[in-house]
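Sorry, any thoughts here?
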Amino acid sequence: MIVCIAEKPSVARDIAEVLGAKNRKEGYIEGNGYQVTWTFGHLCTLKEPHEYTPSWKSWSLGGLPMIPPRFGIKLINDGGIEKQFHIIEGLMQQADMIINCGDAGQEGELIQRWVMQKAGAKCPVKRLWISSLTEEAIREGFANLKDQSEFQPLYEAGLSRAIGDWTLGMNATRLYTLKYGQNRQVLSIGRVQTPTLALIVKRQQEIENFTPKQYWELKTVYRDTLFSAIVRKSDEELAEEAEKEKENPIARKKTAAKEDINRGIPPITDEATGQQLLERIKNQPFFITDITLKKGTEAPPRLFDLTSLQVECNRKFSYSADMTLQLIQSLYEKKVATYPRVDTTFLSDDIYPKCPKILEGLRDYATYTEPLAGKPLPKSKKVFDNSKVTDHHAIIPTGVNPQGLTDMEKRVFDLITRRFIAAFYPDCRFSTTTVTGQAEEIEFKATGKQILDPGWRVIFLKEPQPDENKEGEEEKALPPFTKGENGPHLPQLNEKWTQPPRPYTEATLLRAMETAGKLVDNDELRDALKENGIGRPSTRAAIIETLFKRHYIRKERKNLIATPTGVELIGLIREELLKSAELTGIWEKKLREIERKSYDAATFLNELKQMVTEIVYSVLRDNSNRRVTVTEEAPTPAERKTSTRKKESKQASASADAPSKPRAPRKRKVVNTPPPPLPEGDAMLGHACPLCGKGIIIKGKTAYGCSEWKNGCTFRKNFS
């Protein structure tokens, strides 16, 4: 008998149907020579500290560092999990072959390997590796089963990540809690969690310490067109640009060609100077000195990886990273989208022959797919590139016609589908006109943009939003000018202030995590920095949620704000290895190299153990009396309804191995900021919940509610 093990019951049912297994048993489906069973995500986990050494059960600085000579796994303590595991164990011990049908990624590999180890499986093991759950993909996957040994590096990378997270998290959490937490508050430290919090705290401090500077802009209106005085770059700006170019060779190539000579008036930093310039040109004619017309093209936007999809959904719909992951996972399980936990925006060459059929299946988008039908699809290197695809390709629709999607799922499906169709459309062609003028030897410039052929942009045409009109002003086509013409003009002097950096939103934080804290707009540069990003696409949403649960951050509208405890915790940590996004990114790079067989897992773990040991001794040597102030955010209405006993249980589980400790009274920081009013009807979808502040508004069958309803939020608004 061949035993197939999937990661969840719904996937097991899909596989069983394709294999012809129809006979439902307790915990598995049997038939046609197969037994198809399932896990519920993780059934096993690494052992707790006291299961290695009994003395590690109590929290003590003298017991640190805790580094077991050999790590072991155990079943998660849950009746349902134990029951299902014993069913799997019985099947595996009688099996002639096992097919690992787990999620096709690092975490999925680890989940199933641990179950097979715990069950004592001895027979040969094959691996099903698929990117979608359609019948065709499952059949193709079973026709091309791979040997499990091919995925040993993937397993070693996942195991190294789990052991690394355990070693650092367990030791650092106990260390900082006992040393600085006044025995009243667990200070949770994590390999990815802490540098992510440090990014938010650093940005918050930059905003708080920002000193706005006043400056003035000289502009003039000639023939109903606004011209701006050309301003010379300051020495600081030139130095900053030089530094960026040194760091980013790609950026240097792009700017070197287009950078003009640094000309123009000096920046206007006092009003008197500005008024002098205004008076100087007020009654003088304005001359058109130069007209430049450049034609350009814009390629379609890249396909989505998980991070870019989370960024777009947060920007457009205010969905949290975790909510977007749940929605795209649901679309994957409903067979309408491909595997979501990916970090590439490219497709492999073998997908190209399947694209016409996928487009044909998108019946609701026939207006856009019909022009592509009946002729060869373009094959761009910006879309199809085997060298940029590892385990999985970018997220695309499968071609299965979607049915029964929720409103939120429809929005996400629409995003990935339009991107996919756009990939086969021609580039957008445009012309940019730059008109230079002069009054009393002071140079002015106006720029206009005209779309000559929208190309792929027709797929995204929509009614302009109010805030988009403002941005689009500079892109309007300019009226025709003639070189040498002149006439009267209306100059103006506008007062401005320099602006602080913006607080992180989930969208910008995800981008910062992806590039280890360096915010970049260039796709090529982002690809280069991804290698050193912190966390994995599949775990970043959970990291942000963990920071909320620990009360280290809170949300103000879309902005992420560090709480006083979060700020103090980062202030306490002097060990750069714990809070530096760049250094953590180096560890992430090594984990990726283990996956590619270019770095040794044992070396990685030895380095990590050495690092943890050094951190422990460094903190123990700290003789200062630094302490974190024990604070708690004001409870939300939903939290106030939760019983005291339930609260204590939840807080106790904040750290995996936290002991029960007597609780001293806590200071409460109460924030009484009234939430902004919600819009009416479907316009409220995606807005932050006014009750709990964590979830977003979703649409049910009879009323609007909060996405956090499972966690106790009671917000509800009936359809009017």
The CA atoms of residues 274 and 630 lie 51 Å apart. The longest helix spans residues 152-180. Confidence is low (pLDDT under 50) at residues 253-259, 463-474, 633-675.
